[in-house]
Design a protein that fits this description.
The complex is a heterodimer of chains A (about 250) and B (about 300).
Chain A: H1 2-21, E1 22-28, E2 33-35, E3 42-52, E4 62-69, E5 72-83, E6 86-99, E7 102-106, H2 110-113, H3 116-122, H4 126-129, H5 140-153, E8 157-160, E9 165-166, E10 171-178, E11 185-195, E12 198-211, H6 213-224, H7 226-252
Parallel strand pairs in A: 2-12, 7-8
Antiparallel strand pairs in A: 1-3, 3-10, 4-7, 4-11, 5-6, 9-10, 11-12
Helix pairs in contact in A: 6-7
Chain B: E1 2-5, E2 10-13, H1 14-31, H2 36-45, H3 50-74, H4 80-107, H5 110-143, E3 163-166, E4 171-174, H6 176-192, H7 197-207, H8 212-237, H9 243-265, H10 269-292, E5 299-303
Antiparallel strand pairs in B: 1-2, 3-4
Helix pairs in contact in B: 1-9, 2-3, 3-8, 3-9, 4-6, 4-8, 5-10, 6-7, 6-8, 7-8
The chains are: A alpha+beta (about 250), B mainly alpha (about 300).
């Protein structure tokens, strides 16, 4: 029994060896992203290098794929149809989880840089990042397409093929544009190193996106003390209304 | 200057919002309306999520109505007793309206409901107002400014029980019609994000037979409490009142209202009413157009945790 376990472990080590031959080390231009009052989107620079302990293995082309993923949420996609002469939401598809932000940047066309099998395993491409199972709709595909299309228009889903640039043979960088309507949470940056479409190494890092200052205060108050928040909003409104009439009366007299 | 709205979670140009508030303020000052029916659709057009637009405009109406109510209280043109009776219905209506709103938000039909309400009510009121003011304009031209006075008739309203005396309005009527009017307006306030003055003022004059001079003040009194209550309900059930958005609209609104009052003072009442009717009808037409024409994007997204 012990011998068998050992054999498996040794085999695993041997198999793991080529994976260890090349590794990704990387960094981000920002430690965290703060949503302030004048927040209007942001850009993160992702850079890295391929570390080798041995000369490059084989002649298969090396590619880099970088994904940035925001927190996922359940999303409902609805379709309008004409009913009684007006356009009304009729069919709906409840998608289990869809990222609020997802960007894929590659050094070559995605289909070249990654095989379909590897895409399934690591969930890299945009359709793979969306989880929609058992919705019971015949044309679920169309709803998923619509989700990708609408999110893509606002810059929430991006496919930037060829945006990862190699500086030297082993140095690479790219920048990802984050839109203004970011959702708070921990964003995951994944860097895939592939050779001939097979994933050689994966590097993962988190980047927190947080509201700060006044934005944070207001958001927290609204969600954790909604009654107090409502009363504060009303008080501000009433004071503003009273002040406005007082000021204008003063101006006129 | 872009500003990030913490609850709506979108970045919008601050001057656009100030301008929007100002524009609606000018109109509300000119015509003596709250402007809720204009501000909510305008917020839809600039990309504020409908739930946030409705909830925030109720907050904005509180502010704009409050300064107007102060002026009316000073002139003693508020029937507080009548206002309280209307309010009873209004609170119940607003509570029910917010629940309906939350259910429909889950079903994805809230946009449709809001749009349909706007088309139906704005269309009806706008058309009635236009017809009435055109007739009044023709009549003043023909009769040299003398309006025929309608004789007060006994109607089915006088036959209802639970009568109460309203000294300021000089009325002795059943409390059922005012409660019903209040209820109806309360529902509209919650669903459409409006004060409901455009429904309440005609209802008070034609249905309850209240004297015109106390109508506006009394409706403002009821509106403040109902929209204030609706704001609290929205804040606690859908978490969708955006304080920053409300502030920006408010600043524009109060300045605009003062300018509007000046402009309004220089125009004839009939002209003002025709303009207001045309404005109401054009908002209605725009919304109806959106419902009837095939949209460019048939699909829409909504976050299941908070509604559309």
């Amino acid at each position: 029994m012990i011998a068998r376990v050992l054999a498996v472990l040794v085999a695993a080590l041997v198999l793991a060896q080529p994976l260890r031959a090349e590794q990704v080390v990387a960094g981000l231009s920002q430690e965290a992203i703060s949503i302030t009052t004048n927040f209007d989107g942001s850009e993160i620079l992702i850079y890295g290098a391929v570390r080798r302990d041995a000369p490059p293995p084989g002649i298969l082309p090396m590619e880099v794929i970088i994904t940035v993923q925001g927190p996922s949420r359940p999303i409902t996609v609805r379709r309008k149809d004409r009913r009684f002469g007006i356009w009304v939401n009729t069919e709906a598809s409840a998608i289990d989880l869809a990222p609020t932000f997802y960007a894929v940047s590659t050094s070559a066309p995605l289909t070249t840089a990654l095989t379909h099998t590897e895409d399934l395993r690591h969930r890299v491409s945009i359709p793979m990042a969306i989880r929609a199972v058992g919705t019971g709709l015949l044309d679920q595909g169309r709803f998923t397409e619509a989700l990708i299309r609408i999110q893509g228009r606002g810059g929430a889903y991006q496919l930037n093929q060829g945006d990862v640039r190699f500086r030297e043979e082993t140095l690479f960088d790219t920048s990802v544009r984050l839109p203004a309507n970011l959702t708070e949470g921990d964003y995951t940056v994944r860097i895939f190193l592939t050779r001939g479409g097979e994933v050689v190494d994966v590097y993962e890092q988190f980047i927190p996106v947080r509201k700060v200052g006044l934005e944070r205060l207001i958001y927290l108050l609204a969600h954790e003390r909604p009654l107090i928040y409502g009363i504060v909003s009303l008080t501000i409104a009433i004071l503003a209304g009273w002040m406005a009439s007082a000021v204008f009366r003063y101006i006129r007299s | 200057m872009q500003i990030y709205l913490p609850i709506a979670e979108v970045s919008v140009n601050a001057f656009l919002l100030l301008g929007l508030g100002g524009l609606v303020g000018v109109l509300s000052g000119m015509f003596g309306v709250g402007g809720g029916f204009l501000i909510t659709p305008l917020l839809f057009f600039v990309g504020i999520p409908p739930v946030v637009a409705v909830a925030t405009s109720t907050n904005q109406i509180v502010a704009s109505s409050f300064s107007a109510l102060l002026a009316h209280l000073k002139r003693k043109t508020v029937d507080i007793k009548m206002g309280c009776v209307l309010l009873v219905g209004g609170i119940v209506g607003a509570a029910a309206g917010v629940q309906v709103f939350a259910v429909l938000a889950r079903l994805g039909q809230v946009d449709l409901l809001v749009q349909l309400c706007y088309v139906v009510f704005l269309g009806t009121i706008g058309a009635l107002m236009l017809a009435e003011s055109l007739r009044a304009l023709r009549r003043t031209r023909a009769a040299g400014g003398v309006l025929p006075k309608a004789r007060k008739q006994r109607t089915w309203i006088d036959a209802l029980p639970f009568k109460m005396r309203f000294r300021t309005s000089g009325l002795y009527i059943s409390v059922i019609p005012p409660v019903a009017v209040g209820l109806f307006v309360g529902v509209l306030a919650a669903i459409m994000g409006v004060g409901g003055g455009f429904i309440m003022v005609p209802a008070m004059i034609y249905l309850l037979g209240m004297p015109t001079k106390v109508v506006v003040g009394t409706s403002l009194f009821q509106i403040i409490f109902v929209t204030g209550f609706a704001t609290l309900m929205h804040a606690t059930t859908t978490y969708s009142v955006d304080m920053v958005l409300a502030m920006l609209l408010l600043i524009g609104g109060v300045i605009g209202a003062q300018i509007g009052t000046q402009i309004g003072g220089r125009m004839k009442a009939e002209q003002l009413r025709i303009l207001l009717a045309l404005l109401v009808l054009s908002v209605c037409a725009k919304l109806a157009f959106d419902l009837l024409v095939m949209p460019a994007e048939l699909y829409s997204l909504s976050d299941r945790r908070i509604g559309p």
